[in-house]
Amino acid sequence: xxxAYIPSPxxxxxxxxxxxxxxxxxxxxxxxxxxxxxxxxxxxARGGKPGTVADIxxxxxxxxxxxxxxxxxxxxxxxxxxxxxxWVDAFKIWEGGLGIWGAIALGAVxxxxxxxxxxxxxxxxxxxxxxxxxxxxxxxxxGNWFNQELYGRATDLPWAVEISAGPNRDAGTxxxxxxxxxxxxxxxxxxxxxxxxxxxxxxxxAFALYVAAYCVGRGWIEYMRVDEAxxxxxxxxxxxxxxxxxxxxxxxxVLSAKLxxxxxxxxxxxxxxxxDGKDAKAxxxxKDAKAxxxxxxxxxxxxAKAEDKAxxxxKAEAxxxxxxxALAQGAVKADLRxxxxxxxxxxxxxx
Length: 351
Prior knowledge:
Layout: E1 13-16, E2 19-22, H1 23-45, H2 52-75, H3 78-81, H4 100-118, H5 122-140, H6 142-147, E3 161-163, E4 172-174, H7 177-199, H8 205-224, E5 231-232, E6 235-236, H9 237-259, H10 275-337, H11 343-350
Antiparallel strand pairs: 1-2, 3-4, 5-6
Helix pairs in contact: 1-2, 1-5, 2-4, 5-7, 5-8, 7-8, 8-9
């Protein structure tokens, strides 16, 4: 009896003329866009400026891709440097092989550089981007479906993935561990969004929650995989990595909550060289121009007042010198206006 299963693509690449369009690359690109889109919305909600997340992602994404590839090549070096292998294949990233641990580690270095250039605290930026990174991983895991890789043990479950015969793989139906991890990452993103709204996580704690929650899922999903991997004490290397990173994330979460409770009040200060700096400079120039005009007006008023005072003082000094002649002249004029005495009255007075 036929059973249901998830079919795999017959090929992971479609050629548009001479241009190859690879499903793995499309999944990575879609994941990056989703992470930046959601991160930008969360950054603005935290008081940041639009476009800042994308500007820093220009640094973080290339670093992350290099780090992810380096981790994969280093931990699976036998695939590229073993007998009969071609080391050039280590550069063929489109064929699959990105380690999330290396991508996050080196991507954080790129993000740190971008944050330093913008004067932004890296933990705040990481908090805003955390659920978006989880969704980016959920999208990216479907690239493994296109490449028919990272599947689990054989199973006849209805949601098993069909794998065709190929190099280092046998035809059959297997646990779709890429699907399990994709769904787990969606759950992690929702968990971080809920916890951040409920508890106002800050100072990198939302990112630490994402890391810890992802490690829990990666641990049990990694345990189901059957592809070639290095083992330590009988346990796959990535399981050990998940345990160590989980512990570090939890320790950071607890210590950060004690040492720096609450959330950052300001996540993105005005930048002297950016648009905000231009606006601030324009406002300062306008303020300085207004102050100069007021100073000029005040100077003119002070000069006019000084001139008036000088005029009053000069008039006051000149008044005593002019008073005697003026009084004498006034007396003469008064005598001239008096009528001459009558002659008869004079004679009568004599008699």
